[in-house]
Amino acid sequence: MKRINKALALIALASSSAAFAATDFDTLDVDGSGTISQAEASVDAKLMSMFSELDTDQNGELSKEEFSEA
């Protein structure tokens, strides 16, 4: 059920016009985990293009500190 809710939230975010202008960490952190996954970052093309270089610890997620370097 948790995965379904996360998927629905990502779909809703991706389909909103505001999603493409989202640059706020908390807006992109759809599941409230305190990190931005690649799936969450995928709604922002600029962030996705920088994701690998921003993910300095290479854990597949961006912390607030890593995101602030964008």
UniProtKB/TrEMBL annotation:
Any one GO molecular-function label of the UniProt entry: calcium ion binding
Signal peptide: 1-21
Stretches assigned to the EF-hand domain: 42-70
InterPro entries on file: EF-hand-dom_pair (IPR011992), EF_Hand_1_Ca_BS (IPR018247), EF_hand_dom (IPR002048)
Record's keyword annotation contains Ubl conjugation: no
UniProt xrefs under SUPFAM superfamilies: EF-hand
Entry-linked Gene3D superfamilies: EF-hand (1.10.238.10)
Key words of the record: Signal
Protein name per the record: Calmodulin
UniProt lineage: Bacteria, Pseudomonadati, Pseudomonadota, Gammaproteobacteria, Alteromonadales
